[in-house]
Amino acid sequence: MIRCGDTHVLCTATIDERVPHWMKNTGLGWVTAEYGMLPRATHSRMNREAKKGQSGRTQEIQRLIGRSLRACIDRPALGERQIMVDCDVIQADGGTRCASITGGWVALRLAVNKLMKAGMVTSDPIIDHVAAVSCGIYAGQPVLDLDYPEDSEAGVDGNFVMTGRGTLIEIQMSAEGSTFSRDQMTTLIDLAEIGRDQLVTVQTSVTA
């Protein structure tokens, strides 16, 4: 369970000795993700997506989680198996995709630890940490880890996915009713790096 303020996400990882059919006999492993929100995770009740089908938002977020986590994996070292990471939002107050990525890495780390303990992999396939955090400009000030009221009123907001070593995996950033300068973007990236360092420290402490 990852809790970032009032955003709570349950992250689990499942090891499957099968890979998608298009990857058979490649010798490569795969990491994928699924994401969902409970009906009362938000301030007002949503309909279950099982009833009406996945929204475009859900599909986009789970693809983001999957490709973010794959960035830290040595796929040949993982072997021809798949790890599926499920991220279920129990309570949402902004930043659910970032919390899912950060917590998803912990679940992935624990699953790989299990493979290593069982001798099913010969070397650690996880090459780095992955953490994500939101940043934005709210009321004219740069803010780290926006909650829902801040996110809904921010003139600029972004999601920053980074490795522990400091390289970037993905930036999703946009302005709403405003614009932002290159200097402001740099400020938000610097702020995101501070958050990333704090998250990696916690990741390390709970998986050591």
Automatic annotation (TrEMBL):
Listed InterPro entries: ExoRNase_PH_dom1, ExoRNase_PH_dom2, ExoRNase_PH_dom2_sf, PNPase/RNase_PH_dom_sf, Ribosomal_Su5_D2-typ_SF, RNase_PH, RNase_PH_bac-type, RNase_PH_CS
Keyword annotations of the record: Nucleotidyltransferase, RNA-binding, rRNA processing, Transferase, tRNA processing, tRNA-binding
Keyword Zinc in record: no
A single BP term in Gene Ontology: rRNA 3'-end processing
Coiled coil: none
Catalytic activity: tRNA(n+1) + phosphate = tRNA(n) + a ribonucleoside 5'-diphosphate
EC number(s) recorded for this UniProt protein: 2.7.7.56
Start and end residues of each Exoribonuclease phosphorolytic domain: 1-111, 130-193
Alphabetical list of Gene3D superfamilies matching this protein: GHMP Kinase, N-terminal domain
Residues binding phosphate, per UniProt: 57, 95-97
An MF annotation (GO) of this entry: tRNA nucleotidyltransferase activity
Family per record: Belongs to the RNase PH family.
Job of this protein: Phosphorolytic 3'-5' exoribonuclease that plays an important role in tRNA 3'-end maturation. Removes nucleotide residues following the 3'-CCA terminus of tRNAs; can also add nucleotides to the ends of RNA molecules by using nucleoside diphosphates as substrates, but this may not be physiologically important. Probably plays a role in initiation of 16S rRNA degradation (leading to ribosome degradation) during starvation.
Quaternary structure, from the entry: Homohexameric ring arranged as a trimer of dimers.
Protein name: Ribonuclease PH
Top-level taxonomy: Bacteria, Pseudomonadati, Pseudomonadota, Alphaproteobacteria, Rhodobacterales
Gene: rph
